[in-house]
Design brief:
Elements: E1 2-4, H1 11-20, H2 28-47, E2 52-59, E3 62-69, E4 73-79, H3 83-92, E5 97-107, E6 113-121, E7 129-133, E8 136-137, H4 141-150, E9 158-167, H5 168-177, E10 183-191, E11 193-194, E12 200-201, H6 207-212
Parallel strand pairs: 1-10, 4-5, 4-7, 7-9, 8-9, 9-10
Antiparallel strand pairs: 2-3, 5-6, 11-12
Helix pairs in contact: 1-2, 2-3
């Protein structure tokens, strides 16, 4: 299942517009904060599908019944660009466990590249809800490598793949290589093209550099 939140007008569209704007991008703190706020929006939307249970709460004036989520959540992201988006999720899922994946593009002299997987730090995810986020989904290969690496830590009950801007090619790649019966892909917006170096057009540029400075 693929859900595109930007198809309906909301504050999400404003935050993504600011992420794309070359003038606004000069403010790194604002760029990081917008990614964080987008993570919070995705967290809220994803939580709507969680299992829940009823609790009774004592207030200063009596008792009240409440329905609250009942889900073990593991938040995963790809370093370093994914950190602000990850923080947005963590702001809402207070008790979530966390996973971090180190992966990067290694370019050859010809301009081709391969995804290098370096390190994984993750808890056991068996039977839990995995939310794996990265601001950009270009070819989809980094996301797939991260997902397959996490599966070594167990099989989640359900996986949510989250990205702010996806390419159509990246979404096709995930459809082809992942079992979509237990995976939901969430995107803010979807762009049509990739450059010859596999950057999304119009995209927003290098999210890691814009958030933290050039490598």
């Amino acid at each position: 299942m693929i859900k595109i939140l930007g198809e309906k007008s909301s504050l999400l569209n404003q935050f993504i517009a600011e992420l794309r704007n070359v003038e606004v991008q000069n403010d790194r703190m604002r760029f990081r904060r917008n990614l964080e706020r987008i993570g919070e929006i995705f967290a809220y939307e994803i939580s709507k599908g969680f299992q829940s249970y009823e609790v009774e709460i004592t207030t200063p004036l009596g008792n009240a019944n409440a329905t609250v989520p009942n889900q073990q959540v593991v938040l995963g992201t790809i370093l370093r660009a994914g950190l602000p988006l990850h923080q947005g999720f963590l702001n809402y899922f207070d008790n979530a466990e966390n996973a971090f994946i180190s992966a990067y593009r290694k370019y050859s002299k010809s301009g081709d590249f391969e995804i290098k997987f370096e390190h994984l730090s993750a808890p056991n995810i068996q039977g839990k809800t995995l939310i794996l986020s990265d601001p950009m989904l270009a070819t989809g290969s980094s996301m797939l490598i991260a997902y397959e690496g996490l599966l070594k830590k167990g099989i989640p009950e359900h996986t949510h793949i989250v990205t702010v801007v996806a390419s159509k090619e990246g979404l096709r790649y995930l459809r082809k290589h992942m079992s979509m019966s237990d995976v939901t892909v969430w995107a803010g917006e979807v762009d049509d093209e990739l450059t010859v170096k596999s950057y999304i057009v119009p995209g927003l540029g290098d999210a890691g550099d814009l958030a933290y400075g050039e490598k």
